[in-house]
Amino acid sequence: MRHLLNISLLLKTAVWACLLVVGTAFVSWHQWTKIQERMEPVYRQEIAQVYSTVWNWQIKEWEEEASSLVGGLSQAFLSNPQPKLPQEWIQKNLQEQDVPPVVSAIRWMDQSWQPPQDGHPRVAQVVRNADGQLLGWIVAEANLSQLVNQFAHHLGTGVVLTTPIGEEIAPTAEELSRFESLQANNNDFQPDSITGGYSRIFPIHTKEGLQLQILEDRTDEALAMRAATQNYLVTLGILGSLVLALGLIVIGGRLSHIRRLAEVMEGTVESDHFDEDFRVPGNDEIGQLATAFSRMSAQMKRQMSELKNASRKASAANRAKSEFLANMSHEIRTPMNGVIGMAELLCQTDLNEEQEDFATTILRSGQALLVIINDILDFSKIEAGKVVLESVSFSLSELLEDTASTFGGNASRKGLELLIDIAEDVPSQVVGDPGRLRQVLSNLIGNALKFTHEGEIIVHVSCGEANMIRFAVQDTGIGIQEDAMDKLFCAFTQADASTTRQFGGTGLGLTISRQLAELMGGEMGVESVYGEGSTFWFTVRLNGTPAMPRGNRNRIKGLKGLHILIVDDNTTNLKVLRKQLETAGAVVLSASSPRQAREELEQAYEAGRAIHRMVVDYQMPDEDGVSLARSIREEGYYPALRIVLLSSVCDRSQFPEDVDSVVDEIVVKPARHKRLVDALGLHTDHPKQATEKSSISVENKDAGSVEELLTQVESALEEEAHRREEEKGQPEAKPSGSFPTSYLPLSGIQILLAEDNLVNQKVATKMLEGLGCEVDVAPDGEAACKAISQKEYDIVLMDCQMPVLDGYQATSQIRRVEAAGKRTPIIAMTANAMAGDKEKCLSAGMDDYIPKPVRQEILETMLTRWVPR
After folding, report:
1. What pLDDT does 472 receive?
2. Is the confidence at residue 214, as pLDDT, over 50?
3. What are the pLDDT digits (tens) for 306-336?
4. Helix, strand, or coil here: 522?
């Protein structure tokens, strides 16, 4: 097809004309054949009448002869005494008469004789006595072979007679062989191998049920038809060729103008000048086309000029937009660093209850404002196509559990169950962008918490096709009205945009989440019933790595052979817990109430079945988990029974005082799979442990280091930033970013802080001193270079925008000076948080990057990474 499109228009026209002539000839031949077919039935009818007349005449002549013979025998039979053997009498009398050859036999038939339906012509004479009594029949049968010979002699052609019983009778064996060489059911002309011409078999049917197949010689007619067809086609071909040649001459002359137009247009496109002359002589279609090209050229010239102007304006607007976003990001983050930093430092001081509430409110409001700023910047980066996804290997189950744990405290305060349901076929280790995946999940879980007042929130994870993983966040919240679902994913739009709306927000979260899901190769949608709840789902493409399946890893920890009773009033949580424990090899029993749990224990005890572990939910309607555990201990059915308490309550002060004496372990919801398996495993038979005494949902038992602890603290603070509605009637605890004054993990570290903003200098200095660092401040890049030349520092914190020398220039100068000596780690601490800013810092010679505003725990993590060992 591509080569056909490259053929010149003249050649394509010639091919089309040839096809037209051939098609016309074929259609004409087809029509001529149709006419012949319409004429043929008339011809066949006339021939059939002729052949039928000849055959009927011959049969009539035979019947007259046979009737005369049979009648004479009948008269003689009645005039003489009746013989005992009529057939012998007939044979004897026939010897005295001249029997014609067309009569094959004359027979005597008794009274029971019936004429057979075999197609043979017969003449039957009834014989009765004087009393009219039937004596018999004298029957004369025709000699079919003689009749066929006579019929063929009259016609002058071959004839085959077929009887109703399938008997074929032909004049000669040669004629019969000739019939067999032709197709008897074909009425068209057929090559005749015996005559060398064309013949046709013409069938007719007689009244006796016989079929006569007459062989017609149609050689002359066939040759005449072929000659006429050849003459017709030759004439048509000559006329078509003449018309084609004349058409090609005319069309070729006009097409040359089209070729010239194409050359002129090609030159116009290459030169980008639209001043060429497209005029062509004549006023036919080509002339009109050339005139239209001339008008189009003039219009394109005007539009190109306007387009260039618009393009220059658009480029200037895009540069202005990018510069505005970068400046706004820097200018907003600089004071935000002061607000959040000072509020965080203030929370670390001794405050009374009212002052502590004020400081905490400032900190949370600042963090909420920072989330809004990040949403707007993310939206702008996605629109500009500047979002670059990572491709790293990470644990999907750990990411889900970490993300859910940041919302555990908020879910607990609202009395909601937050659960994770991961299908067995979901790979544990995947390759993708964990940060962006966490961002989408956090947005959907945060929205579910915002709009759900009672019930549960479940995160379902399952596998799809082609490495697609499906995430669904299902809640039992207020639901979404059908007319509002279409605008959910529109930027800056909310389902309830009225001035009396109950829930706030920028309307960017779902838009950003959907765009991120699409960037990760998936899609996002929602299913909701107003008043019953919603399910927000999205898919992403995550390539699974050949890591060990989740179930096998859990079995290594060892729950195989343990009989575990789980007690929870929430059926979904029972289902999730059962799946988690069964994949670890445990035999699981379940109870939906304390009463049913006691019955299960009693039945197992009476039947002699062991119950090794028990998982009890703390918050149940009839009786809490601690009370149930206390009563089970007192009853003493299983003295060695290990009881693990599941609780959404993170503040230890809310538990009964004897909680340590009745339960062996406390696991905070949503329960991490590894954490739960470890708490129930055989190797955890150590003294009871309590949860952290903190109002933030942080499981310190899972943290292997201070760095991991701080990471969890950061996650918890991010969850707090999602909250827009202040909880009423509950005292606020200090943010988890507060550390006791005795906690100095970086004591003695020498830090050079290059920062021109006085507020930022104060915030950073206080944070660093709170970590035990010794801090010197340089107000600009030149002062920073001078300070390093005079004193040896462990780490340099470098702002990027400073007077005299900015951070990039100062870093380059420092690296040139220390080229042959010790390299001092330089960490960018800047309000430049747009796409590409981190790369710019690293290319300038810096070692790492922290965007403002900076929190103390993040600062500690970064410094710990680069502190000299």
Report:
1. 94
2. yes
3. 888 888 887 777 667 666 666 666 667 667 7
4. coil
Q: Which residue(s) pair with 473 in the sheet?
A: 459, 536
Report yes or no: 571 and 419 within 8 Å, Cβ to Cβ.
Answer: no
From CA 410, how far away is CA 442, in angstroms rounded? 13
Question: Rounded to 5 degrees, what are φ and ψ at 759?
Answer: -65, -45
Pairwise CA distance, residues 404 & 419, whole Å: 8
Write down the number of H helices and E strands in the chain. 24, 26
User: HEC profile for 670-723?
Assistant: CCCHHHHHHHHCHHHCCCCCCCCCCCCCCCHHHCCCHHHHHHHHHHHHHHHHHC
Phi, psi values for residue 294, rounded to 5°: -65, -45
How far does Cα 22 stand from its chain's mean position? 48
Answer whether 368's CB lies under 8 Å from 724's CB. Answer: yes
- Coil vs helix vs strand at 64: helix
Confidence label for 686 from pLDDT (cuts 50, 70 and 90): very low
| Residues in Cβ contact with 543 at an 8 Å cutoff, skipping those fewer than 6 apart | 430, 431, 432, 467
Helix (H, G, I), strand (E, B) or coil at 728: coil
Helix (H, G, I), strand (E, B) or coil at 651: coil
The answer to whether residues 108 and 125 touch, using CB atoms and an 8 Å cutoff, is no
Q: Which amino acid is at 859?
A: L
Question: How far is 610 from 375, CA to CA, in rounded Å?
Answer: 54
Question: Taking the alpha carbons of 782, 785, 786, 787 in that order, is the dihedral positive or negative?
Answer: positive
CB atoms within 10 A of CB 848: 17
Q: Both ends of the chain: CA-CA distance in Å? A: 70
- Of 838, 846, 852, 678, the closest CA to residue 763 belongs to 852
Cα separations (Å) of 755 from 750, 764, 830?
Answer: 16, 9, 9
Distance CA 835, CA 377 (A): 9
Kindly report, residue by residue over 632-662, the tens digit of the pLDDT.
Answer: 888 877 888 888 888 876 666 677 878 888 8
Note the pLDDT tens digit of each residue in 40-49: 665 667 777 7
CA distances, 579 to each of 397, 421, 457, 538, 548 (Å): 14, 9, 17, 23, 18
Q: Which token pair is 772?
A: 């035990």
| Cα–Cα distance measured from residue 477 to residue 415, given in angstroms and rounded to the nearest whole number | 13
Pairing verdict, β 642-647 and 665-668: parallel
Tell me which residue of 248, 258, 311 sits closest to 282, measured CA to CA: 258
How far is residue 836's CA from residue 842's CA, in Å, rounded to a whole number?
A: 10
Residue positions counted in the chain = 869
Closest CA to 758 of 734, 732, 780: 780
Distance CA 340, CA 724 (A): 17
Please name the residue that has the structure tokens 């990001």: 329
CB neighbour burial string for 397-407, b if at least 16 within 10 angstroms, e if fewer:
bbbbbbbbbbb
pLDDT digits 0-9 by tens, 217-239: 777 777 777 777 777 777 777 87
Vertex 284: Cα angle to 279 and 286 (nearest 5): 50
pLDDT of residue 826: 93
pLDDT at 161: 80
The string of pLDDT tens digits covering residues 749-774 is 999 999 988 878 888 888 888 888 99
Q: What is the CA radius of gyration of the chain?
A: 53
Judged by DSSP in three states, 655 sits in coil
Distance CA 788, CA 783 (A): 9
Q: What is the number of alpha carbons within 13 Å of residue 50 lying toward its C-beta?
A: 10
Higher pLDDT, 462 or 198: 462
- The share of the chain scoring above pLDDT 70, in percent, equals 76
Three-class SS state of 250: helix
